[in-house]
Amino acid sequence: MKPTDYEPLPIPPPFMFGCGECTELLVTLGERVGMDGTFIPEQIAIAKHIVTAHPEEVPPPHTRRCGQCPKYAVRPDAADRWAEHRARDLFLPETIARLL
Ligand SMILES: [Zn+2]
Ligand SMILES: [Zn+2]
Question: Which ligand is nearest to the CA of 85?
Fold first, then answer.
């Protein structure tokens, strides 16, 4: 997982630009993507923030091309992590968003 192998980050939805914390987290994420190494902690931080601060913006479960949603769907105890997984779609390319 090298940043150079990644697809470019998508344009985040407008609500994220309207939130100071989202903007700050996105800037940090952008910096990490440009450096060597992974940016998993930054990805998780943004997903957790979206679920906590913007729960109405979390996308619905994926109905195709997702190996994670069917697993989360049968685990009521993993509802928070499922929401974080879906929130990843908002700020990551699909291939990366659906890794976690
Ligand atoms: Zn926010
Ligand atoms: Zn999914």
Answer: 2
From 71, 48, 53, select the one nearest 61 (Cα to Cα).
Answer: 71
Q: How far is the CA of 54 from the centre of ligand 1 (A)?
A: 6
Tens of pLDDT, residues 59-69: 999 999 999 99
Contacts of 92 (CB under 8 A, 6+ apart): 9, 10, 43
pTM confidence score: 0.87
Ligand located closest to 19 CA: 1
Ligand 2 centre to CA of 74 (Å) is 13
Question: C-alpha distances in angstroms, 84 versus 30, 36, 63, 99?
Answer: 19, 25, 16, 12
- Of the bound ligands, which one is closest to the alpha carbon of residue 70? 2
Nearest listed ligand to the Cα of residue 83: 2
Rounded to whole angstroms, the Cα distance separating 22 from 5 reads 25
